[in-house]
Amino acid sequence: MSAPDLGHLAVVLALAFTTYALAASIGGVRWRLGELLESGRNAALGAAVLTSVAVLALLYALLTKDFSVRFVADTTSLATPWEVSITGLWGGQSGSLLFWSWTLALFSAVAVWRTYERHPELAPAVTGVLAALQLFFLFLLTFVSSPFERLALPLADGRGLNPLLWDDGMRIHPPLLLTGYMSFALPFAFAIAALVKGRLGREWLAAVRPWAILSWAIQGAGLLAGAWWAYHVLGWGGYWGWDPVENAALLPFLTSTAFLHSAMVQERRGMLKVWNLALVITTFCLSIFGTFIVRSGVLSSVHSFALSAIGPFFFVFLGVVVLGSLALVLNRLPLLTGEGEFDSLASREAGFLLNNFLFASIAAATFWGIIFPLISEAARGVKVAVGPPFYQQVNGPLLFVMFILMGIGPLLAWRRTSSSGLWRSLRWPLVAWLATSALLFVIGVRQGLAMLAYGACAFVTASVAVEYWRGVRLRHRNAAEGWLRALTTLVARDRRRYGGYVVHLGIVFIALGIIGSSFFQQEAAVTLRRGESASIGGYSVTYRGLLERNLPDLGIVAAELEVSNGGRFLGSLQPERRVHRGWEQQPITGVAIQTYVPSGDDLYVLLTGWDEAGAATFRLFVNPLVSLIWLGGVVFLVGTVISAWPERHAQRRLVPVLTRTPALTEV
Question: 10 Å Cβ neighbour count for 116?
């Protein structure tokens, strides 16, 4: 049996196993049969194995260049290196669907196994929901868009991926983002299971929290990786263009961030029950919406696939998920009554509520910007695009207010904060804001909005420092611990809280990079002859000539540039233009980027053209502080790991569930 045939058979068998897992979960609950529930769980594990076999079969076909398979012919060629051929797995429509289904099967297997051990009352419903979601993707892979479809006549060579996708970013960003989209299915499954079982107190939040943090972190990492990829490949000097597909990927991250904050209110005060369920469900629906936008081709984007027949299936699936979830929530409303009320606007729970309102507003504005072209086309017959100015004008003020709240929120007490206590907490962050603004003014910064934004960054940083200082000082005084020991013990005793503050610091770094590159970017287009120089942002760029290399499948023209600052030589840069065989009409820009310390500037250079006399045309950018965005991403992930790391007192005794016990009869 050939690898493509084995892969197709594995997908068909996975469809059968998943169907059985769904049926066994329903039947096991209905007839209270532990053996049937156990077999359903094992079927879910079997589906994970089978989808893994299918992925390995497709990878083998890609690496061996089996051009009898349509997907292989579309995504690789004889000239494609093996490491690029691997990325073909997610570089095409059906392959990315298989990757989606495979990661869902793996995550589902882990979730099902852990849930039967730790949350047996929810386990059968979680298994059933995940199986139902998996069925949709396996149905598409079997009957609509199979990556193992054969060509009538095998080709001698394939088309291969666009050379723009040969970059290292192709190995990082798409799989991260696809996994992020997929992973939101796990919190959704727990939410639906809680609704089905009527277990809507704090216990379902404990079950969903690890998966909510994991999916949120993966999606955040995918967004940052996408920004990095766009910055060093696309050649327009930026990292976020408010493209429809970029925006669609941002939406579930926004709503999941809101959930992680508001879940703390329900855990502490028993409030916002309906809102938290709505956020989890909305987040998953937005992940399906993002997948639909990419695969339907209904919106123009550099990230989307061509118009295809798969879009309507996603649209129907999304409708079923929305209507089914809404019906469940409405049915369970009597069980979702809040256990408390807001005592004061100056309280942490009120701060979280405002935080959620801002996140929801940003998500709603961004969603409106995405769908407006479709609405305008339906109403007027003209597709009107929404550009970056709309998002900047609408979301900019909302993001600023939310950023300020990020500094105030941790300083508020639960239930009520006295005015004197609030002032004691805020005085040093306010001093940091004012001092930063004054310093910027002294060194010559006159951009009012930039000064305001930098001051806000100082405010948030100081508020985090105040929280750490309070905790460390208390332990140092009461427990007689050294300062370093007090710090490590403080974080270890409350990882969720203090890891969250590290995440806030990561956001501050990202904000600093965005502010610097947005307000102070410099750009110039110059044409230079050999030996001539151009100046930008204090840097002098001297052109020394062109270098040409002709490889069997690739032609490269590079410009040799020397960079200096104040007469001091800083090094050389070589921006390129590359032409791949078979893609002569689409030359690839090789951006030259160099970060200079301590200024934090990125010198970003593109070679845009040249003439027979050897003169060359360049676009030069000086992008201040962009490197802080990538540093902030690292800090963001470190804070997430700290926050999500299990605490010692949180370890639970494993509960046997697949026996005929009273615990099972409660399912």
Answer: 22
Candidates 607, 616, 620, 621; CA nearest to 545 is 616
What is the per-residue pLDDT for 387? 87
CA 463, CA 456: separation in Å to the nearest integer?
11
Beta bridge partners of 150: 69
CB-based burial of residue 580 (10 Å sphere; 0-12 exposed, 13-18 middle, 19+ buried)?
buried
Do 349 and 267 meet the contact criterion of CB atoms below 8 Å apart? Answer: no
Residue percentage of the chain with pLDDT more than 90: 70
Residue type, 524: A
Coil, strand or helix at 240: coil
Tokens 């003014």 locate to 441
Residue 272 CA: distances (Å) to CA of 66, 262, 336, 487, 603:
54, 7, 9, 33, 48
- Residue 140 CA: distances (Å) to CA of 88, 143, 145, 157, 209: 19, 5, 6, 27, 30
List, as own/partner pairs, every contact residues 495-499 make where C-beta atoms lie below 8 angstroms and the sequence separation is at least 24, other chains included: 495/642, 495/643, 495/644, 495/645, 495/647, 496/643, 496/647, 498/467, 498/468, 498/471, 498/642, 499/639, 499/640, 499/641, 499/642, 499/643, 499/644, 499/645
What is the overall mean pLDDT for the chain? 90
- Cα separation of 539 and 618, whole Å? 15
Tell me which amino acid residue 21 is.
A
Q: Which of 150, 148, 108 is nearest to 126 (CA)?
A: 108
Q: Which residue has the tokens 């069925």?
A: 135
- The pLDDT value given to residue 228: 95
CA distance 561 to 531: 10
Helix-helix angle 495-519:388-408, to 10 degrees: 140
* pLDDT of the residue at 659: 38
Q: Where are the beta strands (DSSP E) in 247-320?
A: none
Contact 211/104 with Cβ under 8 angstroms? no
In order of start, what are the domains of the chain with their CATH numbers?
1-166 (no CATH), 181-333+344-404 (no CATH), 405-520+638-644 (no CATH), 522-627 (2.60.98)
Strand order in the sheet with 522-528: 522-528, 616-624, 601-610, 592-596
Q: State whether residue 564 is helix, strand or coil.
A: strand
Both structure tokens of 575:
């921006």
What are the strands, taking DSSP E only, across 319-455?
none
Residue with token string 């930098």: 454
For the stretch 389-398, pLDDT in tens is: 999 999 999 9
Task: Say if residue 598 is preceded by a cis peptide, omega within 30 of 0.
Answer: yes
**Do 164 and 235 contact (CB within 8 A), yes or no?**
no
CA proximity to 272, closest of 350, 206, 208: 350
Find, among 588, 623, 407, the residue nearest to 508 by Cα.
Answer: 407
| pLDDT at 306 exceeding the cut of 80 | no
**In this structure, what DSSP letter does residue 573 have?**
E
**Pick from 24, 3, 122, 9: nearest CA to 66:** 3
- Token output for 146: 């199979």
- pLDDT per residue over 595-628, tens digit each? 998 889 999 999 999 998 889 999 999 999 999 9
CA distances from 643 to 58, 220, 492, 511, 637 (A): 37, 15, 10, 21, 10
Tokens of residue 180, six digits? 């992020």
Contact of 531 with 543, CB cutoff 8 Å:
yes
